[in-house]
Specification:
Elements: H1 2-10, E1 35-38, E2 44-50, E3 53-59, E4 70-71, E5 88-91, E6 97-104, E7 111-118, E8 129-130, E9 140-147, E10 153-159, H2 161-168, E11 176-183, E12 194-200, E13 207-210, E14 216-221, E15 231-235, E16 246-247, E17 264-267, E18 273-279, E19 285-290, E20 298-304, E21 308-316, E22 319-328, E23 331-339, E24 350-355, E25 363-367, E26 370-377, E27 380-385
Antiparallel strand pairs: 1-2, 2-3, 3-4, 5-6, 6-7, 7-8, 9-10, 10-11, 11-12, 13-14, 14-15, 15-16, 17-18, 18-19, 19-20, 21-22, 22-23, 23-24, 25-26, 26-27
Length: 388
């Protein structure tokens, strides 16, 4: 199973690789890295990649049937499309469709963050642009995309320009950095990027979520001390002020490599920061907690153990859902736990779908407050309606 192979290899020490991961030629045909979202009218959109194109499909029957694909990038290019580094999808205030992805460059483990938009519900897309102004052929990858309450498009990514500079100066530097940029003109252009923090993990996805006041917050794996791989939280400021980055998990997992397991984040209307993450300081586990940046998470709970991976979280009112992949010799199972008291307690884990073949990372969606799980598998894309 390719996703398990990548996860295992990323747990090896960084010295085992030339850089931060395993280099592969991009295969033809669709990979399993996909993103899905509902627009304001309840239409489902799905983006993935195949044959050098990011492709967009839609569904008006909650995923039972999908439209013919529309190519987001008219000219084929290489595209990262695995679970932690997949094309992303978001909507503007008038259902403008925004898509971002990471494009491999010629050198291994390098990339550019790319963006395109559609103003006609996916009928046509603008020519792709590169988001960051820095054009060095280095890592700009693992993009994360969100739209704030003012309609600004915010994109964050993992960037290695500071590692390259430190190496050139003979100075130590662990991991990579987080950079971000935003667009005030609906994606026609992006402002020069700014650095959020040094020493982030190299290949764990960044989780973005909108706060109740409309700002975009980031939750991501950082590096503390001598390769302690815990998480940090920050609001990505777009008003000229500096973002405040605070440590948000304290498992003290010491590992000299990237676990290839990014976190999930959902912020309730009441401001509660519901988070899920993977760590293995005392055995592999998926954890849930409510972030109190600078302090240990509240309502800390181990949700799953060995074989669990790539969790996501969503919240509506006092209800919280967490979903993850559970892997064993028989294949992949999609497992869900639910809380009806704002995360204080969770019901028993229950299987809601399964796949004998490989599966991508699950994604929790909401349509008019009702939860669905988008799950891309070797057997095809699925949208699973979550029942009580």
């Amino acid at each position: 199973m390719r996703h398990l192979l990548i996860a295992v290899l990323c747990l090896l020490p960084l010295s085992a690789f030339a850089h931060d991961g395993m280099h592969m030629d991009m295969p033809k045909g669709p990979e399993l890295g996909a993103s899905a979202a509902f627009d304001s009218q309840g239409r489902l959109y799905v983006v993935d990649a195949a044959d050098g194109h990011v492709r967009l499909r839609h569904s008006d029957d909650d995923g039972r049937t999908l439209s013919a694909p529309v190519e987001v990038n008219a000219t084929a290019e290489r595209i990262y499309a695995e679970g932690e580094n997949r094309p992303k999808l978001a909507f503007g205030p008038h259902d403008e469709i925004y898509v971002s992805w990471s494009q491999p460059r010629a050198a291994p483990w390098t990339g550019f963050v790319r963006f395109a938009r559609s103003l006609d519900r996916g009928e046509h897309f603008s020519a792709p642009l590169t988001v960051h102004h820095d054009r060095a052929e280095i890592t700009h990858r693992f993009d994360a995309l969100a739209v704030d309450g003012a309609g600004r498009i915010v994109i964050a990514w993992i960037d290695k320009r500071d590692l390259i500079a430190a190496d050139a100066a003979g100075k130590p530097y662990l991991g990579a950095a987080i950079y971000y940029s935003w667009s005030d003109d609906g994606g026609a252009s992006f402002v020069p990027e700014r650095k959020l923090i040094d020493q982030s993990c190299e290949c764990c996805r960044i989780a973005l979520a909108r706060t109740p006041d409309g700002e975009v917050a980031a939750f991501f794996r950082g590096i503390y001390g001598d390769n302690i791989r815990d998480h940090a939280y920050a609001v990505l400021r777009t008003d000229g002020q500096s973002s405040r980055v605070e440590r948000a998990t304290f498992s003290d997992w010491h590992i000299a490599g990237c676990p290839h397991h990014g976190p999930g984040l959902a912020i309730g209307a009441d401001g509660v920061r519901h988070a899920v993450w993977y760590e293995a300081s005392h055995g592999p586990a998926i954890w849930y907690g409510q972030l109190d940046p600078g302090q240990r998470p509240r309502q800390l709970l181990k949700l799953a153990g060995a074989g669990a991976s790539h969790a996501d979280v969503a919240a509506s009112g006092r209800t919280v859902w967490v979903v993850w992949n559970q892997v064993d010799a028989a294949g992949y199972r999609l497992v869900l736990r639910r809380s009806d008291d704002d995360g204080a307690h969770f019901g028993a884990a229950r299987e809601i779908a399964s796949s004998t073949g490989a599966a991508g990372s699950p994604q929790l969606l909401q349509k008019h407050g009702h939860p669905f799980v988008a799950w891309n598998t070797a057997e095809g894309f699925r949208l699973i309606r979550v029942t009580p």
